[in-house]
Amino acid sequence: MSSSSFFFDQMKKVGKGVMEGSKKTMLRTDIMFLEREIKSRKQKFGVEVYELMESLETDSQLSMEEKEGSIRLAFDKAREDVAQIKMKIEVKRRELEVVEGGNGSDGSVGNSHYVIDDPHGSTASPDQDNFGFDTR
Asked: pTM (2 decimals)?
């Protein structure tokens, strides 16, 4: 093998390593931003429910069931939004594991810890309660 061929092979390897490193960094950054988006959505939910409960407290025209239904609707929407973001995080984590070359021996990819356990498709982490709040 000529020295120029060896040099170009080494440069290709270095270039591939740099590209994989960049992709890993990009995926980790995407995950971080998605996790922030979850936190932001939960905070928005808290404000929505507070304002909703405050207005329902003074509204005597609605029955208790209607008031509870309004709150439940806000929660269901927030849970759906959070579940969708968690699914995006899971996809990013799987992509990261593929880039890192970490296929599990059981056929799974990565260290995913989100399990779909709700008939509506929401996800929960073992570190979260059924409402997605951190229990650590």
From this structure: 0.62
